[in-house]
Amino acid sequence: MFIKKFVLRAAGASLAVILLTAQPLRAESSSETARIEKLERAVELLQKRNADLQAEINNLKTRQAAYPPEGKLKKKVAYDGKTYVEKAVVEEEKPPVYVQQRGPELKLVLGGFIQANFEDGDVSAFEGRFGQTALKDRFRLRRARISLTGEFAEQFDFKMEGDFENSDGTSPSNRTDFSGTDIWLNWHRFPAAQIKIGQYKAPFGLEQLTPDTALFIIERSLPTGAITPERQIGVELWGKPFTTLWPAQKDLLTYYAGIFNGNGRNINNNDNNNFMYVGRLELMPFKGKVFGQASSLKLGGDVLNSRDDQGTNISPSGNLLVNSDGSLSSFVLPGADERTAWSVDAWLNIGPFDLIGEYLEEYVNGRTVNGVPPGFANFTTNGFQITAGYFLIPKKFQAAVQWQYLNPGQKGNDGIYSITAGLNYYIHGDDLKLMVNYIHTWSDFRQANPEFGQDEFNEVIGRVQVMF
Q1: The pLDDT of residue 89
Q2: Based on the number of CB atoms within 10 Å of its own CB, is 333 exposed (0-12), middle (13-18) or buried (19 or more)?
Q3: Rounded to an integer, what is the distance from CA 407 to the centroid of its chain?
Q4: Mean per-residue pLDDT, 175-182
Q5: I need a surface site. Which of 244, 267, 277, 338 has the fewest CB within 10 A?
Q6: Residue 238 vs residues 202, 218, 252, 260, 281: alpha-carbon distances, Å
Q7: CA 188 to each of CA 153, 193, 196, 197: distance values in angstroms, whole numbers, following the listed order
Q8: Torsion of CA 29, 33, 38, 44, to 10 degrees
């Protein structure tokens, strides 16, 4: 670039010399011979000047080759017939690559996260995976997600997220591959009455609705996985009624009311002409300071009703069906049913301390459809989880503990208890986090039926989390 500018300035100087030389020729001499002599002298002068300029340019090129711009060097190996010679050459600049949105978005954000686990011992025994459903020690790619979020000028926001997570199967055909998780569009013109449509988590269960990257314990509890509906396709009305009326207390009340297909994510066809109805209320009666520490109290409650047909998985994110040896697996309905569920929860935060409690209960009643009986007995399942966390080093090092219980309600004494102790190291907040958990699990059914084997289980889980 410097050489090009130098040549342009030299050409401009040469042109000026010609003009300055030619102008007096026209003014001072009328003789043709005199004009020719003057022009010849001018040409000689230009030739000499151009020769000097060419010499300077050659000198600059030589210096630039010897001392190229920093960061622009690359090594090149040449063969002269006898030996290989390595020399530094100037790397050619490439034009920048950029992405431009097609639509009129005000904001586009590309992000995602990766969670990788090491699991040793009685793997996932706290989820009822022992005996005939037991898993082996493993490294596990738990989640690998990429997402695109954005906002339109017309007061819409959206999210498209997919997951590369692998299944727990043992053959390549069981790979989950890339599948959609959150794919939704939300109209937020009125904060008190927003409309959300697409695929996302149905608003039921505090632990289920807490982002995967923000949990204090590595995996969600067994009752959360067994009872909550997880992601569904549908539409909901939700909002914060006090956003405009009382801005200082906009989080005082939040409500959700949704209608969903009810048969899981990435399934466009409903299992029948009935829908799943879900509602949630959140109340934050206190947000301020206690003992000089930022503090808050949040209370919540959920309700759910769904009429499902044969073949629907009613525990899409966990295990609920009690097997003959007391272990658990996904509950795929052998016949039609009607489900009603409810839950209550609370979250207390005082500075570095958090205490979270949640209770869930579900009634699963069979339905006879077209004269076909449901194929299972009615049952009630319930459970709870209590989680506490405390930062030993503010915002860096956290200790956490969780007590959980699930009563599947399908066999006598089929409850499963677990206690988890964990440590979390926040290298860069949730963006880069290390976690380790020790989990001890008891099976009431195994204790009452010792012929099936051990009734206590232990597991260690480690996790590395990176968000980008």
Answers
A1: 62
A2: buried
A3: 32
A4: 82
A5: 244
A6: 12, 29, 14, 14, 10
A7: 11, 8, 9, 12
A8: 170
